[in-house]
Amino acid sequence: MVNIEYIREMFKDKKKAKSVSYIEECIYKAGARPLRGDTRQWQDSDDKLAMIQEPRQLAKFMVYLSSMQIKKYIEVGVASGSTFLFLCSYMREMCDLEEATAVDIAVPHKLIKVLESDQMPYASFLLYDSRSLEFGKFLNGREFELAFIDGSHEYVDVMEDYRLLKDRSGALAFHDIVCRYQPGVVQAWNEIREENSNKVAVEFIDQSHDRCVKVAGIGLIHIRREK
């Protein structure tokens, strides 16, 4: 099982935790699955995370978040729960995080083990489709400082998640915004940026390894902050 205290300990030194190179190192140490062009040897294990992230992008995204106050966070689409666990551990130390919710249509095995161990009493998991009536009821009356959309990568589904959360979130983040293999997300992100052209938007699209095509990419829009 993943040791959350070990991960949080990485961020106790707040000066280091605002260094992109340091956070990138922490991502590799905690556990990041190799993406295309990354030739590292990889073997999954119960005590390691398995983040499906481009480390430099995630590191820059996290350092950016460190300047925000994020008391309530929701992540739609969490896979194994690895990125959720890592981000929450960071935001707990750096952003005053009080409540975090993970949502997926499948059970995230790494996350569930941590939640059952009571290592993260402020976090919860919902086994919901984001388009379900149950999820709509959950959202009723709730607001979040940050929502991370990383569920279905089909264009129509990304747009549906966006419309569902945009009026309930101070900022929205999206994953795979430049990924050649996820054209639905790329199209959705471009349209969302255009729709919110008067809002502050940031892209994290650096590549840690030489690649013939770009992978992943994180985009963030401050829904309530104009340029």
Task: Explain the overall architecture.
The chain has 8 helices and 7 strands, in the order αααβαβαβαβαβαββ. With 227 residues, the chain is of the alpha/beta class. The protein has a single domain, classed as Rossmann fold (3-Layer(aba) Sandwich), CATH 3.40.50.150. A 7-stranded mixed β-sheet has the order 3-2-1-4-5-7-6, with helices on both faces. Helix 2 crosses helix 3 (55-65) and helix 7 (155-165) packs parallel to helix 8 (183-195). The chain is globular and about 40 Å long.
Supply the CATH class. Answer: Alpha Beta
- SSE class: alpha/beta
Helix content: 25-40%
- Rg value: 16 Å
Number of strands: 7
Total count of helical runs of at least 4 residues: 8
- H and E string: HHHEHEHEHEHEHEE
Low-confidence stretches: none
Question: Reading side by side through the largest sheet, how are the strands ordered?
Answer: 3-2-1-4-5-7-6
Strand content: 15-25%
Instruction: Categorize the overall geometry.
Output: globular
The CATH superfamily label reads Vaccinia Virus protein VP39
For the record, the count of structural domains works out to 1
**What would the average pLDDT be, to the nearest integer?**
94
List keywords for this structure.
227 residues, alpha/beta, Rossmann fold, 7-stranded mixed β-sheet, 7 strands
